[in-house]
Amino acid sequence: MQARHYGHDRGKNVAAPILTFTGDSDAHIVRGLIAILFAMFSGKRAGDLLSTDAIAVFDRLGLREHLTPQRSNGFRSMVERIRADARAAATDSPRP
Prior knowledge:
Radius of gyration: 14 Å
Order of helices and strands: EEHEHHH
Strand content: 5-15%
CATH architecture: Alpha-Beta Complex
Number of helices: 4
Structural class: alpha+beta
CATH topology: Sufe protein. Chain: A
Shape: globular
Number of strands: 3
Mean pLDDT: 81
Number of domains: 1
Largest sheet: 3 strands, antiparallel
Distance between the termini: 31 Å
């Protein structure tokens, strides 16, 4: 999985990092998990990503109960990677 950070200025003198993600898998179910995570997170500000609880969203949708323990661990790893990228982008962005 790769993340790209884009500075985005909406009329302010402070850049708000926007993150976009790319990734893929040979396994169809993992590819689907990636697509759902990217739909939730890609193109959003770092702060918005950090305030989103992807695991709670998956629980509300009833998706996690259908994952094997290995896939569930992989899903958690992807979420943590996205959150780590968001923390790094938020830390690197200028403060007002």
